[in-house]
Amino acid sequence: MSCPSQLRLDEWMLDRRSAEIATHLPTCARCTERVAVLSAEREAFTLRARPAAFVDAVFARKQKRTWRWPWLALALATCALIFMLRPRAIETGDGYKAGPPDALLYVKHESTVAAYAPTKRCVAGDVVQVVVLSAKPIYVAVVDVEAGGKTSVLYNADTPTKAGRASLPRSFELDDWRGGETFVVLFSDEPIADPTASEARGDGKRYPIQR
Ligand SMILES: [Zn+2]
Question: Which of 54, 62, 133, 173 could form a disulfide with 68 if both were Cys (CB 3.0 to 4.6 A apart)?
Fold first, then answer.
Protein backbone atom coordinates (compact mmCIF):
# COMPACT_ATOMS: atom_id res chain seq x y z
CA MET A 1 0.00 0.00 0.00
CA SER A 2 1.04 3.62 -0.33
CA CYS A 3 1.53 5.61 2.85
CA PRO A 4 -1.74 6.13 4.74
CA SER A 5 -3.13 9.60 5.25
CA GLN A 6 -2.51 11.40 8.51
CA LEU A 7 -6.14 10.84 9.47
CA ARG A 8 -5.99 7.10 8.81
CA LEU A 9 -2.74 6.84 10.73
CA ASP A 10 -4.26 8.75 13.61
CA GLU A 11 -7.29 6.47 13.63
CA TRP A 12 -5.04 3.46 13.54
CA MET A 13 -3.23 4.74 16.62
CA LEU A 14 -6.57 4.55 18.39
CA ASP A 15 -7.95 1.25 17.25
CA ARG A 16 -5.06 -0.67 15.58
CA ARG A 17 -7.68 -2.22 13.39
CA SER A 18 -6.09 -1.89 9.96
CA ALA A 19 -3.96 -4.90 9.17
CA GLU A 20 -2.80 -2.99 6.07
CA ILE A 21 -1.22 -0.28 8.15
CA ALA A 22 0.21 -2.79 10.61
CA THR A 23 2.02 -4.57 7.77
CA HIS A 24 2.99 -1.32 6.08
CA LEU A 25 4.70 0.20 9.10
CA PRO A 26 7.70 -2.11 9.44
CA THR A 27 8.47 -1.57 5.75
CA CYS A 28 8.28 2.23 5.80
CA ALA A 29 10.67 4.44 7.73
CA ARG A 30 8.61 7.53 6.97
CA CYS A 31 5.40 6.16 8.51
CA THR A 32 7.28 4.69 11.46
CA GLU A 33 8.57 8.18 12.11
CA ARG A 34 5.06 9.66 11.75
CA VAL A 35 3.73 7.16 14.27
CA ALA A 36 6.52 8.08 16.70
CA VAL A 37 5.61 11.76 16.37
CA LEU A 38 1.90 11.05 16.86
CA SER A 39 2.65 8.90 19.89
CA ALA A 40 4.72 11.66 21.44
CA GLU A 41 2.01 14.23 20.77
CA ARG A 42 -0.61 12.03 22.26
CA GLU A 43 1.49 11.27 25.28
CA ALA A 44 2.12 14.96 25.86
CA PHE A 45 -1.59 15.67 25.60
CA THR A 46 -2.45 12.89 28.00
CA LEU A 47 0.11 14.07 30.50
CA ARG A 48 -1.46 17.51 30.40
CA ALA A 49 -4.99 16.17 30.52
CA ARG A 50 -4.75 13.59 33.26
CA PRO A 51 -2.78 12.75 36.36
CA ALA A 52 0.43 10.94 35.45
CA ALA A 53 -0.55 7.75 37.21
CA PHE A 54 -3.40 7.27 34.78
CA VAL A 55 -1.34 7.56 31.64
CA ASP A 56 -0.44 3.93 31.13
CA ALA A 57 -4.07 2.92 31.29
CA VAL A 58 -5.06 5.33 28.57
CA PHE A 59 -3.08 4.16 25.57
CA ALA A 60 -3.16 0.48 25.09
CA ARG A 61 -6.41 -0.89 23.87
CA LYS A 62 -7.11 -4.54 23.47
CA GLN A 63 -8.55 -5.82 20.24
CA LYS A 64 -10.90 -8.02 22.19
CA ARG A 65 -12.32 -7.15 25.51
CA THR A 66 -11.97 -9.62 28.29
CA TRP A 67 -13.83 -8.94 31.48
CA ARG A 68 -12.13 -9.97 34.65
CA TRP A 69 -13.95 -10.94 37.78
CA PRO A 70 -11.70 -9.98 40.62
CA TRP A 71 -12.82 -12.08 43.55
CA LEU A 72 -10.10 -10.82 45.80
CA ALA A 73 -10.81 -7.25 44.85
CA LEU A 74 -14.43 -7.92 45.60
CA ALA A 75 -13.56 -9.15 49.08
CA LEU A 76 -11.43 -6.06 49.66
CA ALA A 77 -14.02 -3.77 48.16
CA THR A 78 -16.70 -5.33 50.29
CA CYS A 79 -14.66 -4.65 53.41
CA ALA A 80 -14.23 -1.09 52.33
CA LEU A 81 -17.89 -0.85 51.39
CA ILE A 82 -18.99 -1.85 54.86
CA PHE A 83 -17.31 1.25 56.17
CA MET A 84 -17.88 3.58 53.30
CA LEU A 85 -21.40 2.73 52.21
CA ARG A 86 -23.03 2.51 55.56
CA PRO A 87 -23.89 6.21 55.81
CA ARG A 88 -25.92 6.47 52.65
CA ALA A 89 -28.04 3.33 52.89
CA ILE A 90 -28.71 3.47 56.56
CA GLU A 91 -29.17 7.15 57.03
CA THR A 92 -31.80 7.24 54.33
CA GLY A 93 -33.95 5.17 56.65
CA ASP A 94 -34.01 1.77 54.98
CA GLY A 95 -35.83 3.13 51.95
CA TYR A 96 -35.24 -0.19 50.23
CA LYS A 97 -37.85 -1.86 52.39
CA ALA A 98 -40.44 -0.40 50.03
CA GLY A 99 -40.58 0.82 46.47
CA PRO A 100 -38.96 -0.42 43.26
CA PRO A 101 -35.52 -2.02 43.34
CA ASP A 102 -32.52 0.16 42.80
CA ALA A 103 -28.80 -0.30 42.35
CA LEU A 104 -25.90 1.67 43.71
CA LEU A 105 -22.54 1.46 42.01
CA TYR A 106 -19.25 1.85 43.75
CA VAL A 107 -15.89 2.25 42.08
CA LYS A 108 -12.72 1.06 43.69
CA HIS A 109 -9.70 2.97 42.39
CA GLU A 110 -6.47 1.65 43.87
CA SER A 111 -7.32 1.45 47.55
CA THR A 112 -10.15 3.97 47.56
CA VAL A 113 -13.81 3.17 47.11
CA ALA A 114 -16.13 5.97 46.06
CA ALA A 115 -19.73 6.15 45.01
CA TYR A 116 -20.24 6.05 41.26
CA ALA A 117 -20.81 9.45 39.70
CA PRO A 118 -21.74 9.79 36.03
CA THR A 119 -19.19 12.55 35.55
CA LYS A 120 -16.32 10.93 37.39
CA ARG A 121 -13.68 9.30 35.24
CA CYS A 122 -12.78 5.65 35.56
CA VAL A 123 -9.54 4.05 34.40
CA ALA A 124 -8.38 0.56 33.55
CA GLY A 125 -8.01 -1.50 36.69
CA ASP A 126 -10.82 0.21 38.54
CA VAL A 127 -13.27 -2.25 40.02
CA VAL A 128 -17.01 -1.64 39.90
CA GLN A 129 -19.23 -3.14 42.58
CA VAL A 130 -23.00 -3.21 42.22
CA VAL A 131 -25.09 -3.09 45.37
CA VAL A 132 -28.78 -3.92 44.96
CA LEU A 133 -31.45 -2.41 47.15
CA SER A 134 -34.75 -4.21 46.97
CA ALA A 135 -37.82 -4.68 49.09
CA LYS A 136 -38.00 -8.34 48.09
CA PRO A 137 -35.69 -11.00 46.64
CA ILE A 138 -34.97 -10.08 43.04
CA TYR A 139 -33.16 -11.41 40.00
CA VAL A 140 -30.40 -9.16 38.75
CA ALA A 141 -28.39 -9.02 35.56
CA VAL A 142 -25.70 -6.59 34.47
CA VAL A 143 -25.11 -5.78 30.81
CA ASP A 144 -22.29 -3.71 29.40
CA VAL A 145 -23.29 -1.67 26.34
CA GLU A 146 -20.48 -0.20 24.27
CA ALA A 147 -21.01 3.05 22.41
CA GLY A 148 -21.23 1.17 19.13
CA GLY A 149 -24.09 -0.93 20.52
CA LYS A 150 -22.15 -4.12 21.25
CA THR A 151 -23.43 -5.73 24.44
CA SER A 152 -21.86 -8.16 26.89
CA VAL A 153 -23.69 -9.84 29.73
CA LEU A 154 -21.42 -9.33 32.71
CA TYR A 155 -23.63 -10.98 35.25
CA ASN A 156 -26.88 -12.91 35.31
CA ALA A 157 -27.84 -14.66 38.50
CA ASP A 158 -29.83 -17.88 38.51
CA THR A 159 -30.87 -17.17 42.08
CA PRO A 160 -32.40 -13.92 43.31
CA THR A 161 -30.49 -11.59 45.58
CA LYS A 162 -31.85 -11.39 49.09
CA ALA A 163 -34.23 -8.65 50.10
CA GLY A 164 -32.74 -5.49 51.55
CA ARG A 165 -29.27 -4.60 50.55
CA ALA A 166 -27.14 -7.09 48.60
CA SER A 167 -23.71 -6.76 47.05
CA LEU A 168 -23.52 -8.77 43.86
CA PRO A 169 -21.16 -11.71 44.48
CA ARG A 170 -19.01 -10.54 41.60
CA SER A 171 -17.40 -7.22 40.82
CA PHE A 172 -16.19 -5.97 37.46
CA GLU A 173 -12.70 -4.83 36.65
CA LEU A 174 -12.57 -2.21 33.91
CA ASP A 175 -10.21 -2.97 31.07
CA ASP A 176 -8.45 -0.41 28.92
CA TRP A 177 -11.37 0.13 26.58
CA ARG A 178 -11.43 3.72 25.43
CA GLY A 179 -14.81 3.90 23.76
CA GLY A 180 -17.92 4.93 25.60
CA GLU A 181 -19.84 2.34 27.52
CA THR A 182 -22.75 2.02 29.90
CA PHE A 183 -23.47 -0.49 32.62
CA VAL A 184 -27.12 -1.47 32.68
CA VAL A 185 -28.48 -3.15 35.81
CA LEU A 186 -31.64 -5.17 35.16
CA PHE A 187 -34.13 -6.32 37.80
CA SER A 188 -36.83 -8.95 37.46
CA ASP A 189 -39.15 -11.01 39.60
CA GLU A 190 -38.27 -13.99 37.42
CA PRO A 191 -34.95 -15.28 36.08
CA ILE A 192 -33.82 -13.05 33.23
CA ALA A 193 -33.74 -15.31 30.18
CA ASP A 194 -32.13 -12.82 27.83
CA PRO A 195 -30.55 -9.79 29.52
CA THR A 196 -29.46 -8.36 26.17
CA ALA A 197 -33.06 -8.33 24.92
CA SER A 198 -34.27 -6.74 28.16
CA GLU A 199 -31.63 -4.05 27.82
CA ALA A 200 -32.64 -3.47 24.20
CA ARG A 201 -36.23 -2.89 25.36
CA GLY A 202 -34.93 -0.12 27.58
CA ASP A 203 -35.31 -2.00 30.87
CA GLY A 204 -33.00 -1.44 33.78
CA LYS A 205 -31.01 1.36 35.25
CA ARG A 206 -28.20 2.88 33.23
CA TYR A 207 -24.79 3.97 34.46
CA PRO A 208 -22.57 5.57 31.82
CA ILE A 209 -18.88 4.93 32.51
CA GLN A 210 -16.67 7.92 31.82
CA ARG A 211 -13.08 7.28 30.79
ZN1 LIG B 1 4.55 4.76 4.67
Answer: 173
The torsion angles phi and psi of 183, rounded to 5 degrees, stand at: -85, 130
- Cα separation, 178 vs 191, in Å, equals 32
Within this chain, do residues 121 and 163 fall inside the same structural domain, yes or no?
Answer: yes
How confident is the model over 157-190, as pLDDT tens digits? 899 998 887 888 878 888 888 888 999 999 999 9
Q: In the chain, how many domains are there?
A: 2
Q: How far is residue 69 from each of residues 126, 129, 149, 170, 172, measured CA to CA in Å?
A: 12, 11, 22, 6, 5
Q: From ligand 1's centre to the CA of 2, what distance in Å?
A: 6
* 11 Cα to the center of ligand 1, angstroms: 15
